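Your task
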Amino acid sequence: MPARNRHDAPRRAVGLRRVLAGVWWSLELAVRRAPAWFLLTVATSVVLALVPAAQVRAVAQLVTASEQDGLRAAVLPLLALTLLVGLGQLAASAENLIGQRISLRLMLGLNARLARIAASLPPGRLKDPQVHALLDGTRSSTFALSRSPGSVISALSSLLAALALGAAIWPFSPLAAGLVVLALIPSLVNYAWSAGIQDARFEEAAAHGVRFRYLLDQLVDARTGTELATLGTGPALAAAAEEAHSRMSRIQDRLYSLLLRGDLIGGLITSVLLGAALIAVLAEGGGAAGVSAGVLGVVAGLQATRGAGFAVGDVISAGPLIARFREVAELAEEVAPQEIVRTAERLEVIGGSVTYPGSARPALRHASVQVRADEMIALVGVNGAGKTTLVDAMLGIVALDEGRIEIDGVDASTLTFAQRFAHFGLVTQEFGRYELSVRDAVALGTPRTDVRDAEIWAALAAARAESLVHSFPDGLDTMLGPQFGGVGLSGGQWQRIALARIHLRGAAIRVLDEPTSAIDAEAEQEVFAHLRETAAGQLTIIVSHRAWTLRGMDRIYVLDRGEILESGSFEELRAPGTRFSALFAQQLSGG
């Protein structure tokens, strides 16, 4: 038991520090993103906090005046009380509308900031499972985060209301005033205690939540959902999603059960304190005016106490979410503009080795590859041979454990992310299907903002997609994909759009990983013919499983289990007894 106590104290301290840090972050966010709306929120909240205390004083004056001088003397206090009631209603309505407006503005700002953070990350970090989970979890919490500043202001407003009520009741019953203020403490202690509990269980519940959302995305996405339906395994994935959600719910149920007990205990203590305050008012209220005003003040104090508890609870609940968003914000990297490098003389991999964490053997072992300007080389091998790892190493997506990569004699590891990627144009099997206009989808190939339509058409022609786009109803302005009412494309048509992006980019080193896997044979021949025509001055690296596409390669590297077993021309490697001839035996036998 002593060991547990020593552990719990730091946890509570961490939880409290996180809450205070979250409060500061929330207020700073509101001031920075929407200063005018923030000031309006503060102003209406202060008015709303002081109105109950003013009503207590107005009731006391009303009762005193009516007792001493009759109804005529009570007109002014009655008018003041009426105006205060109306002011309270107006302030409450204004606070609600202003709160919604500032929350919407903050949510838009948070989403925009999250998009900029994601855009600043290099591919290697985006592929990190922990980073991906962090981004995904934060993306789903921006609505709750946008409400956090309002919760902080509401909590402070409720505290101010309770203190103001205590001051208003003091002349009639100092004891009741003290008890009203003291009634805040059980709620605050209870929610401070709950902060540590929620913080301790947040990560576990969040992990199951991320898993649930991932599985749900696979079921509702058009491509993966169709595949699962044809396989008849959608229900199995749905069951896995339900299990992940159930685990998250069980953790949350246990958490809320504990919190409910804390609420009941805290509510009981608060009720006892406020009941004692009512007794104190009756005992020392000093006449009808004191009793009336005191009872009103205690009842209003109950509302303020409850409001403070709920608001503080929201602030505490947002603490872990704010901590995760701040963690995501720390991931952001400075984004340097890319200036596309259009010419290069040589790319060389020298003794490159890569071993992934947790793997027993290297995915790439002492690989050496060279490609020069005007050359087209190919990487071939079975799945898992190391082709993708080698390509990712060239791009800098994965780091080498041994060896180095040089671009024109310069160690690529000394280049920044932007400088390195500026040399490359990349098309992979998992190319992006961006549901934008044709113009915008192709223009994504370059960071330039001054791309002319003539360049777009030239890139489409190079990718053998010009006639396709001419057939669209609005040409370059045609929306692609069904999600926003655009035209539907086949896999091969999407692939041609991806190839057009690389042609528009015009980088010195073209890396094409199965660039025509979804294109028919005739169109594939046209695409590769154009790649050879435009190879002058560029370095082209092809990953392919089709033998005929390799015929015109200057050099072919054959990988197996992470090692380069052999290299040479197509004619050299097709000789009997080579690993290449074994890999492509069936295709080669067919001509």
